[in-house]
Design a protein that fits this description.
The protein has 76 residues and is an all-alpha fold. The protein has a domain of 51 residues. Helix content is 79%, strand content 0%.
Length: 76
């Protein structure tokens, strides 16, 4: 039962992590340019939305790491 819950969380977090990484700015793209906010980058560096996106991505990466290690240990 625990393995099924871990796999379910792992799949959801994996899909969320893919989505969050694709929202990050690459070469002139990203969350701020998606909505036409080019002034925020030149005026203040990174916008609040981009900082929150970074924090959310880090949180999802930590959950992904935890579930990966938990599944590896559990399935040995």
């Amino acid at each position: 039962m625990l393995t099924i819950a871990l796999v379910t969380i792992h799949v959801i977090v994996s899909l969320g992590l893919i989505l969050l990484i694709l929202l990050h700015s690459g070469r002139g793209g990203g969350l701020s340019d998606m909505f036409g906010g080019t002034m925020g980058r030149s005026a203040a560096g990174s916008t609040v939305a981009e900082r929150n996106l970074d924090r959310t991505t880090i949180l999802f990466a930590l959950i992904f790491t935890f579930t990966t290690l938990s599944l590896a240990i559990r399935l040995q």
